[in-house]
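Good morning,

Attaching, inline, the backbone tokens for the sequence recovery test we're adding to the shared suite. The designed sequence is right after.
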């Protein structure tokens, strides 16, 4: 087995473990609102930086043909639009499960309906598919760019690792509120954790089957699309807190900027070479 397959399998195993563990932790308790927003600000800055500093430039490099930059931007906007549609239809991107938020939710809706959980689960699953495509495409682009890349697709991998647990935590918390059995929650937790690794392996294999030139072009389009999805997800976590809350503004701003800086520093690790 080639080294890039071992890297992909290692990434996939780590993503599965992080997602599954976060789903299991949903039954233990909830974070405070301030800690939740601090974490979201940090992760939003990191994901936004990965999309702009890593994913979009790699996509532009690999999209062939005239006006490749315009093609890349078109697919970027398409990814943003697709994610907006998903969030409008399924209303799945909600990560504040602090004690205050949970109490307010119970008072307003008397719990969560199972139909709502199904819609949210479908939306999160489709969002996870875009992350799997991003990881598989990023690995293909990194390996075709240089066979001596120290940690290929590291930025995209880390962006998924820090965000995927929040999605799993969201889904399993809602299932618990909707009175799903422990067996049902465990099965969904396993299935949800497997989506990204399976799609990542399929995306990497598909681009490899297309051949070196065609595979890189398709992977570039997929990367631009996924970058748009990442940007939309990052801003959807960040903007509501900016517009509707004024508490801890300095602390949350520092967290956001720290996420951006960290994503930029990852570039130097990802592009490092084995000596």
């Amino acid at each position: 087995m080639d080294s890039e397959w071992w890297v992909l399998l290692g990434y996939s195993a780590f993503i599965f473990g992080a997602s599954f563990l976060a789903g299991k932790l949903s039954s233990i308790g909830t974070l405070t609102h301030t800690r939740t927003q601090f974490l979201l600000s940090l992760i939003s800055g990191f994901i936004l930086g990965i999309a702009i500093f890593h994913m979009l430039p790699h996509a532009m490099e690999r999209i062939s043909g005239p006006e490749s930059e315009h093609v890349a931007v078109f697919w970027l906007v398409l990814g943003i639009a697709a994610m907006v549609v998903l969030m409008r239809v399924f209303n799945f991107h909600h990560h504040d499960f602090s004690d205050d938020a949970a109490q307010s939710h119970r008072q307003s809706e008397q719990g969560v309906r199972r139909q709502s959980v199904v819609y949210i689960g479908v939306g999160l699953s489709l969002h996870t598919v875009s992350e799997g495509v991003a990881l598989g495409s990023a690995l293909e682009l990194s390996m075709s760019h240089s066979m001596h890349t120290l940690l290929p697709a590291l930025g995209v991998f880390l962006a998924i690792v820090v965000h995927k647990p929040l999605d799993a935590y969201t889904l399993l918390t809602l299932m618990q509120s909707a009175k799903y059995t422990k067996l049902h929650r465990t099965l969904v937790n396993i299935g949800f954790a497997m989506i990204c690794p399976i799609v990542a392996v399929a995306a990497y294999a598909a681009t490899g089957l297309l051949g070196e030139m065609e595979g890189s072009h398709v992977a570039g389009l997929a990367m631009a699309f996924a970058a748009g999805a990442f940007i939309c997800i990052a801003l959807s976590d960040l903007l509501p807190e900016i517009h509707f809350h004024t508490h801890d503004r300095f602390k949350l701003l520092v967290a956001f900027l720290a996420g951006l800086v960290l994503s930029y520093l990852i570039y130097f690790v990802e592009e490092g070479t084995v000596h």
